[in-house]
Amino acid sequence: xxxxxxxxxxxxxxxAAVLLRLGDALMRMGLIEFFRVxxxxxxxxxxxxxxxxxxxxxxxxxxxxxxxxxxxxxxxxMISDAARAVMVVVIAVWLMPVVTGRLEWRGLGAVYxxxxxxxxxxxxxxxxxxxxxxNLLTNSELIQANTLLTAxxxxxxxxxxxxxGFVAERMGVEWAVLANALAYVASVGLVxxxxxxPGRAQxxxxxxxxxxxxxxxxxxxxHPTALPLVxxxxxxxxxxxxxxxAFTGFAVTEPPDGLGLGTGGAGYLLVAxxxxxxxxxxxxxxxxxxxxxxxxxxxxxxxxxxxxxALSSMSNPWLAAAALFGLGMVGxxxxxxxxxxxxxxxxxxxxxxxxxxxxxxxxxxxxxxxxLQFGTNFFRETPAPTILWWLGIGTIVxxxxxxxALHTRRSTN
Length: 413
Description:
Blueprint: H1 2-5, H2 8-37, H3 42-67, H4 73-99, H5 109-136, H6 142-170, H7 173-192, H8 209-222, H9 226-252, H10 263-285, H11 296-312, H12 317-331, H13 335-345, H14 348-375, H15 377-381, H16 384-411
Helix pairs in contact: 2-6, 2-7, 3-5, 3-9, 3-14, 4-5, 4-7, 6-7, 6-10, 8-14, 9-13, 9-14, 9-16, 10-12, 11-12, 11-16
């Protein structure tokens, strides 16, 4: 790990990633504070916010797969950050009349349009950043670099949630939002300072991502192990999408339907989730024999379901923090054994198609999860604790059914 951090170019890329995640978390909490203070429906608007952020990944994912390798990656990063800085400034300007009291209420269509465009840019930004790493590091350093990048960004996201809640409540919504613009500008400077040998854009016709998707679906349907694991990934993405919105409503709604916390309190609870995530990732990173057990991801889902059931009945913020810590510790490492089993059981020539297909299906499940919470009467009118309770039951049942499906398919093949 020390060797990786000695690479100045990687340090700049890592710092840029941390700043971006902190900035995004600050703006997200700032928008939640804006919803709360100005008496918007916090749960409903949070669902819309995350829906418009996730939708471009589903719509533009095939385009990104086909074209992102044809462009200079460093340029993609710099242009993307500069464009998103402008989008954040547009959001701040749109909110300003309500924040300053000149208007009592204003539609949020312009805000969600900028969020959608930001998500569209991120659809190209994230694979370009991942693809840039081999230009900065040796092959033997890539695993350590990816692990460090993933863990550090995850911690920055949760830490930024706590900081964002504090800034939004104490300093104002505009400070929390504009901090994101400053993060994007700083990232442009850091990426500009990265020195990498100019690479040639990929020649020839772009890869047909639709053909890759079809090949992945056919292969998944016929494979005895891969399909249940991909379905399990989709279940986890759906649970996560429903949870983040329901938890936001649960945290800021007055009792008996919530904890009655402000935006800062909700952010501090997410910090507890982040600390638990770090502990879980550290335990999983020790690579003990039990971390490769076939039952592990299903057992994790059952434990997550139990913790969600417990959280739904809590009214004490400290107990909720303990539950969030447990959810982070169990949930954050869930993808590690799933990825390991897919890499182990899927043939090399089909691995790319399977992971690309999984990514698109995961995006689809998250988009559906967010849409349900503002597009259906059931989720709009049901109290957050009830949603968390049913989510816990559904998580336990899904884990059991997926384990049964995996066992059945392996027995019949």
